Amino acid sequence: MDHVFDHIGIAVRSIDEALPFYINVLNGVVEDRYTSEATGVEVHVAVIRTDEKVIELLEPTNKNSPIARFIRQRGKGVHHIAYRVEDLDVAIANAREKGIRFLEDTLRTNARGRRLIYINPISTDGTLVELCSYPAK
């Protein structure tokens, strides 16, 4: 199964303060903005496209959200790298066969219909990696 680079997630304190760099310097275009208040997510998201690359700016909606904790522990910056797979369930099963561990409580469908799960950074030498799949169009 192919794993295709999908996007990079960047933790920011304020999307509005971060956006000018991505728009004015990188010539990005905001494709979407939304908020997810789902428990364990609690984040504002801005989806920015620069050429064929996608960046998600992630702003915590409260001080206890995972992104807020990330910023407290590691500071602003790269939160995760995401890879798109054709079938998320198959990709998870294949990875588990290879000893990959997942953050089980992160398996979900986001506000835009993307199914995703995060791989436990223990399995990736410290990098948070998201596997995701999109609904058929």
UniProtKB/TrEMBL annotation:
Keywords: Metal-binding. Belongs to the methylmalonyl-CoA epimerase family. InterPro entries: Glyas_Bleomycin-R_OHBP_Dase (IPR029068), MeMalonyl-CoA_epimerase (IPR017515), MMCE/EMCE_epimerase (IPR051785), VOC_core (IPR037523). Residues 4-134 form the VOC domain. CDD domains: MMCE. The lineage of its organism: Bacteria, Bacillati, Bacillota, Bacilli, Bacillales. This is VOC family protein. It comes from the Bacteria. PANTHER family: METHYLMALONYL-COA EPIMERASE (PTHR43048), METHYLMALONYL-COA EPIMERASE, MITOCHONDRIAL (PTHR43048:SF3). It comes from Sporosarcina oncorhynchi.
